[in-house]
Amino acid sequence: MHLFLLLILQTTAAFGQIDPAHCRYALGMEDGRIKDDDITASSQWYETTGPQYARLNREEGDGAWCPEGQLEPSDSQYLQVDLGRLTFLTIVGTQGRYARSSGNEFARAYRLNYSRDGLLWKSWRNRLGNPVMEGNKNAYASVINDLHPPIVTRHVRLIPVTKLSTTVCMRVELYGCPWDDGLISYAAPEGQLMMPPGYPIASLNDSTYDGTRERRRLSGGLGQLTDGVIGLDDFLLTRQYHVWPGYDYLGWRNDSLGTQGFVEMEFVFDRQRNFTSMKVHSNNMFSRGVKIFSSVSCQFKPHLIANWEAEPVAFKTVLDDRNPSARYVTVPLNRRAAKSLRCRFYFADVWMMFSEISFQSGNEIKHNNHTFQSEQVNKTTSCFDSPDVSNTPVLIGCLVTIILLLVIIIFLILWCQYDCKVLEKKDRRYRLIDWCYFLSGPANTDPHYERVFLLDPQYQNPAVLRNKLPELSQSAEASACGGGYAEPDVTQCTPHQCFHSNAPHYAETDIVRLQGVTGSNMYAVPALTVDSLTRKDISAAEFPRQQLIFREKLGEGQFGEVHLCEAEGLPEFLGEGSPLPDRDGHSVLVAVKQLRADATSQARNDFLKEIKIMSRLNDPNIIRLLCVCVSSDPLCMVTEYMENGDLNMFLSQREIESTLTYANNIPSVSLSDLLHMSVQISSGMKYLASLNFVHRDLATRNCLLDRRLTIKIADFGMSRNLYSSDYYRIQGRAVLPIRWMAWESILLGKFTTASDVWAFGVTLWEIFTLCKEQPYSLLSDEQVIENTGEFFRNQGRQIFLYGPPLCPPSLFELMMRCWSRDIPDRPTFEGLYQALRPHVSQ
Ligand code: ADE
């Protein structure tokens, strides 16, 4: 029900405030709705170049308004337009004097002053503080300037600007829409800086506020709370370009405002109104201590010179710890009449941040206004507009729609529950997407059947994803062939057979536990029974364990340890021609992964399965299993020892080679080393892809280097606590390397070679940032998941990893292709290998 309430509140958002993208109507200079009397000027050259001729695309008089004489750089001549009522002004268009080709005067630049009451004038500035706008380059073409920020005003002055003494003439059109809110100023405490360690500083001030700032209080103006720009869920991200983190929000810290625990704001309107509601767009990023307000209490004043009425309107919000989306909160104002309001917003957490506030009032006075055409004035009545009596049929219609929607949702949930049971009985492995989970949330999940996929409720659009089902099930078949550590016999079957094999896709796997054993990433391994794996499945030879002499510990995880050991007699044991690492006499150094003696039978089983798969892989860029000790406990697998450890550690301790690193003996790598590493990884992955083997956790932490800088891909999963922050834990059940995962892996649990390609792109990015930064380091895990939703929607709002400075542009293009939303647009490993190989100097 909370969700439903939220849905209503969020839906209201679409209607609750002015939208600068749609508020772009010509206000009537060209078509004459703005009367001559409402256009004035500081001066005019002749009668025939008076202000009434300043109409865009018109040629009356001498074709434009021209101020008297030459315009000097220090002049402040202006053309003034009275729009007749408060207007949300979004665009200004200008033209020069053409006069049917007899004129050639125009303004190359201009400024804008504005006034809501015709007395107090303010200067417009863009978001970076620049007051000058580019004007015309010739006498005939019109130039349109979007006002960022837009302004709420009734009177506008255009002031031509020049660097040299010159004659200027102007024709003008203004664009916008009526400011029905009627709000003429708000007062509030000044916004503050958020300076959390490890995050960028967020400046939560009201940077376009056009009133006064005194003693940390804003008063007498409007600003970002009325600019129509709604802040994003993550307050650090901004809708505007080239501005600072936190720009879209005005925010306050609880303890900075004394002990009062609230923010007091005052709102003044153009006239007395009957207020039905107030909509406050509020951030709710609770992971960073930001929440919508817990309650609000508003007082009313019928006239400016009157006392606040005693009885306030109070409203408690529904706090929400589950959905971090920013949202509109609608506060009912009970049709109270006032010209001024004073509201106290109470903190629910350490921070409170607003990006927009709008007001709805019931007694719209019809204006006999010359400025707006009727279709502009008539707002479409929405379900959530003020509940006027005149709107009763609309309200009834809306209620019926809501009830119908509810019935449909309930029906879908019931149908889905039924569907789940039937399908589960038939063969639960066949379903790729758990629609019940999808529609009704985790309450529906069977504990024996835990699916691991993340679908943020706000991205749940079953219709969209259902359309994708045919495509997805094809890929599911493909990935079932290679899903997890698929057995080689499975890779040879047809897709159809594969689906019936013993290696179900990850998304169809009963996740029993998800912690790696000693190295392997077991969240990817399907549950097999112990009986299903026998010694004969393992093709690696049994080595006498007493010949393994412990040297040092290389790593440790929940289920076991990795040791560096000397393996006595291993060369003889493996026989002639076996590709052995460097030997020291008749012993060699090896890495021994050992399962804890008290490991569960499940962990044992996974360990044996990992051995089975590894024993069949044979490639110079994949870690090689040399032998095993499985005839008695503890179970061990013996692999080559890689002297230079993992690639993440290796690169993070180095700088890019330069004369400086050379002179100061700083450990370094060259660009050509980095390219060589990339080629090797692509080669190893090409091999895995050729076996339809899906790795699922490709990252620099899972690549090892020997002393010659040969790279071998391994898989340590969560076995090394060192990298635990690279994994996201879903409610304590699954650990997922979300920063390396393709959108379809996160949202649909779909792992394929194409999702390995995505991870390869991230691995390349790590390599070329020398592993100095975690991918998307500015985003929390939750934000990474939100960003995944943006990748899915592909509306240009997804955040990509940036191009590392070391990275050649062509290589960054390759990375970007790895992160293509559509799978067919991603390169193959073969293609990646072919693209990368030529870059390596032989
Ligand atoms: N850590 C885990 N496995 C290793 C290996 N094979 N070589 C070096 N370090 C390791």
How is this structure best summarized?
By secondary structure, the chain is of the alpha+beta class. The chain is built from 18 helices and 31 strands. The chain folds into 4 domains: 154 residues, Galactose-binding domain-like (Jelly Rolls), CATH 2.60.120.260; 204 residues, Jelly Rolls (Sandwich); 138 residues, Phosphorylase Kinase, domain 1, CATH 3.30.200.20; 201 residues, Transferase(Phosphotransferase) domain 1 (Transferase(Phosphotransferase), domain 1, Orthogonal Bundle), CATH 1.10.510.10.
Helices and strands in order:
Layout: H1 2-16, E1 25-26, E2 39-41, E3 79-95, E4 109-115, E5 122-123, E6 133-134, E7 143-161, E8 171-178, E9 183-189, E10 193-194, E11 202-203, E12 212-214, E13 217-221, E14 250-253, E15 262-282, E16 295-301, E17 313-316, E18 327-346, E19 351-361, H2 374-377, H3 392-427, H4 435-440, H5 462-467, H6 469-482, H7 488-491, H8 495-499, E20 548-556, E21 560-568, H9 570-574, E22 583-584, E23 587-595, H10 601-614, E24 625-629, E25 636-640, H11 647-652, E26 655-656, H12 659-663, E27 668-669, H13 671-690, E28 703-705, E29 711-713, E30 728-730, E31 734-736, H14 743-748, H15 753-768, H16 781-793, H17 809-818, H18 829-836
Parallel strand pairs: 26-27
Antiparallel strand pairs: 1-8, 2-3, 3-7, 3-8, 4-5, 4-6, 4-7, 9-13, 9-15, 10-11, 12-13, 14-19, 15-18, 15-19, 16-17, 16-18, 20-21, 21-23, 22-23, 23-25, 24-25, 28-29, 30-31
**Strand tally, please?**
31
The ligands found in this model are: adenine
What is the mean pLDDT? 79
Question: Globular, elongated, flat, extended or rod-shaped: what is the shape?
Answer: elongated
What fraction of the residues are assigned to beta strands by DSSP?
A: 15-25%
Radius of gyration over all CA atoms, rounded: 34 Å
Distance between the termini: 65 Å
Low-confidence stretches: 1-16, 364-391, 420-532
Assembly annotation: single chain
Biggest sheet statistics: 9 strands, antiparallel
Q: Counting H and I runs of at least 4 residues, what is the number of helices? A: 18
- The total domain count is 4
> What is the name of the CATH class of the largest domain?
Mainly Beta
The CATH architecture classification of the largest domain is Sandwich
Counting helices, strands and paired strands, the structural category is alpha+beta
- Give the % helix: 10-25%
CATH topology of the largest domain: Jelly Rolls
Keywords: ATP-binding, Cell membrane, Disulfide bond, Glycoprotein, Kinase, Membrane, Nucleotide-binding, Osteogenesis, Phosphoprotein, Receptor, Signal, Transferase, Transmembrane, Transmembrane helix, Tyrosine-protein kinase
GO molecular function: ATP binding; collagen binding; protein tyrosine kinase collagen receptor activity
GO biological process, one term: positive regulation of neuron projection development
Organism: Amphiprion ocellaris (Clown anemonefish)
